[in-house]
Amino acid sequence: MKRFFLFAMMLAGVTAFAQQRNNVVPSFTGAVEDFKPSVVNQRGHQYPMVNSQGAVRAQLRAPQANSVQIDIGGRRYEMVKDENGVWTGTTEPQDVGFHYYQLNVDGASVPDPGTIYFFGAGRWGSGIEIPSADMDFWQVKNVPQGVLEEKYYWASTTETMRHCFVYLPAEYQKNPDKKYPVLYLQHGNAEDENGWGSQGHTAQILDNLIAEGKAVPFIVVIDYGQGQNIPLIPQYASKLPQGQNGAPNVSDAFAVVLINDIIPMIEREYRVIPDAQHRAMAGLSMGGGQTRRTSMANPTTFAYVGLFSGGVMSVEDVQGSAGYKETNKVLFMSSGSKENPRVMEAAEALRGIGVNAVGYVSEGTAHEWHTWRRSLYQFAQLLFK
Amino acid sequence: MKRFFLFAMMLAGVTAFAQQRNNVVPSFTGAVEDFKPSVVNQRGHQYPMVNSQGAVRAQLRAPQANSVQIDIGGRRYEMVKDENGVWTGTTEPQDVGFHYYQLNVDGASVPDPGTIYFFGAGRWGSGIEIPSADMDFWQVKNVPQGVLEEKYYWASTTETMRHCFVYLPAEYQKNPDKKYPVLYLQHGNAEDENGWGSQGHTAQILDNLIAEGKAVPFIVVIDYGQGQNIPLIPQYASKLPQGQNGAPNVSDAFAVVLINDIIPMIEREYRVIPDAQHRAMAGLSMGGGQTRRTSMANPTTFAYVGLFSGGVMSVEDVQGSAGYKETNKVLFMSSGSKENPRVMEAAEALRGIGVNAVGYVSEGTAHEWHTWRRSLYQFAQLLFK
Fold this sequence. Notes:
2 copies of one chain form a homodimer. By secondary structure, the first copy, chain A, is an alpha/beta fold. Chain A has helices at 2-19, 202-211, 234-237, 253-269, 286-297, 315-319, 324-327, 342-352, 369-380, and strands at residues 24-25, 36-37, 49-50, 56-61, 68-72, 75-78, 80-81, 86-90, 97-105, 108-110, 117-120, 123-130, 147-155, 160-168, 182-186, 219-222, 279-284, 304-308, 330-336, 357-362. The first copy, chain A, has 9 helices and 20 strands. Chain A has an 8-stranded mixed β-sheet with strand order 13-14-16-15-17-18-19-20, with helices on both faces. In chain A, strands 1, 5, 6, 9, 10, 11 and 12 form a 7-stranded mixed β-sheet that branches. In chain A, helix 2 runs parallel beside helix 9.
C-alpha cells in the first residue's frame, strides 16, 4: 500500500497533465500589464514574457495557422492572431519558479522558439521562469566558482559508456591533497541528468552557499536514473527485486549502476573520502523514491539521505533496515506546500525514535523545480557537518 | 580588399540562406528507402531519419495545419499530410556531417520536436547528422576520458560574469604536478560557446587522438566570441581598432577579453605552461578571422595558429607582424572542398618564406561542422610537439 501510494504520488503530475490536456481555455484577460522577458529566453528574444502576477504571455508568428495555443500547467490557452499573422496569448498566473511548457500550432506540439530548452516531461522543450522573492540563492554571482564537469565513463553493469555531471567546488583544484565528501543527486521521472545542472542550478546554489560559509565544500554527482532505459546486462538484471506485480522493479536498475559503477568510479577518479559518513544520496520525485529504496537496501552506505517531493521514510522503513539508524546523520524530507505535506509528521515520527529527521515545506510551490532548488539549498546546509 | 573578402566569405553561408529562403520545392521523390533515425534524435524518436544518400525525412503530427515544410540547406521542402494528420517530407541528399535545420508550420519557424537542440544560425534549434565514412574519430569510445568543464568567471573588461567550457585531458587529475599547454578554440558567427563541445565533439576528438598517441594531452578553452554581444567597459571599448567604415571593429572585442581576462584566468586557475610555445589559438569561420587578427595583433603570444574556414594568412600578414614568424611553430589553414580552396596555395606561399604552414581541405563538405571537426582532428595532431 505504501509503495502504491508513493508510485501514485510520483505519477500524479503526469496523470494530471494527461487528464487535462484537452482543457482548452481562452487567453487570460485579467493580466496586469507589467510583462518582462523571461530570464530563460534565448538571447535577444522579448517573448515569452512574465508579469508580476506570474502570468505568461507568449507570441509566435504563424500567418497561415488556424489555431495556436500555449500548453502549460495542464491547460491550453488560445492565442489570438493580429493583422500581421502574429499570435499572442496570456495564461493565468502560475506558481513561482520553473515550468515546462510548449506551444501547439494547428495540432502540432512544438517548443516555443523564444526560449532556451530543457529536458523534462520526457522531451527537450521550452521552459519559463516565474520570478520568486527568494530567487537570489541560485543566481550566478561573483563568488569563487566551482565547475560542472561533463563526463563519460564505462559501466560494467550495462557494458556501455554512460554520461554524468560532476560538480567540483571552487577550492577543489587548489587543494591537491584534500579529499571531499560526495552527494549523489538524482532527477525525477521523465527527466535526465541535465536537469540539476540546468533548471536546478546546482552549481550556483552550492557556490553561493559555500561562499557564505553556510555549506562545507563537497562534490555532487548527477547521473541518469530512468530505470526502463538502463540496459543492465543479464547478470545484474536477473537480480533486480520484484515489484508489486512480480515483474522486476526497473526503478532499482539505477541503484545497481550506482553501487557497482558510479560510486567506485567517482572514488577512483576524484579525491573523495570513501566512507558512509562522507556520502549522501538525494533525489527529487522518482529520484527521491530511488533514494529511499537504495538507502534501505544499502543501509550503511549513506549517512545523509534526502527525499525531495519523493515520499517519506517511515519508522518501519528505518527500523527494518539493519544499521540504517546507526549510520544516518540526517534524514531530510521535503515537499511543496501544494503537494504532500506529510513530510513534517513523518520527520516528527522519526525523531521520536532518535533519527535526526528534518522536514521542509516549500511555500507556494507544487511538484516542480523551485521546490527542489529550495530543497537542495536546505539539505546542502545540513551535510557533512 | 582582403578584409572585405574575408568578411564576405564569412557571411556567405548566411547570405545564401537568406536569398534562398523562399526557394520552396516539393518533397524529394528519388530517395532510396533505407532510412534510419538520425543519431542526434531525442531518445525514442524515430524521426527525423537519414538514408544512405544523405536525404533527410522528417515527420510531424499537425492535423489542422495547411502547410508543413522542412527548411534545410537554403531550401524548404513541402511535406505531405496523411489521413491521420501526420506530415512527412523528404529532402534532396545533403553533404555528410552536421546541419542545422527547422520546420515551418503554417508560416511559423519552429524546432523539430524529434531532435535534440544545438545553438547555431543565431538560435537554439534542430540539427541532423548525415553519416560520413570517417565519423568514427568523434565517437564516444571506451578510452581514457577527459572532461568538459562548464565554468563561470569574472571578466574585468566587461565587469560581468562570463561563461566558458574547459576541456581537461584524462590524465590531468592524475598528475597534480604536471602543467599543460592550452588551445583557445572559437566558434563562428551566430554560434556560441556550446558548439565545439556539442556538435563539434571536441572532447571525443581529443580523447580518441590522445588514446591513440596521435596528440599530446592539452587543455582546450572554448568561450563566447560574438563581438556585438560583448559589453566592453568604455576603457577597453575606446581602444578597439577601427574597421573599414571608421567604426570600432567589434569582432576584436573578443580579443580584448581573451588577452586581458581569459588567458590570465586560465593560467591562474589551471596547471598551465604559460608561454607562447605552449599556447595555441584557432577558430572556425568568424573565429578563424578573429584568430588571424588576434595573432597578428599579438604576434609573440601564440606559437600555433589555426584558421578553419576562416580565410588565410598571407605572406604580408606574417611579415608585417614583428616576431610572428619567429614565434610560430605551425600555421594551419583549412576549408571544405565546397568552399574556399585557396588554403593550399596560401600555405605554399608561406612555406616559401620559411613558415611551417599546413593547408587542409575537407573533401565533400562546405562551410559546416564536419569541415571543422576534421580540421580540429588534423590541427590537434600538430600541436605542442
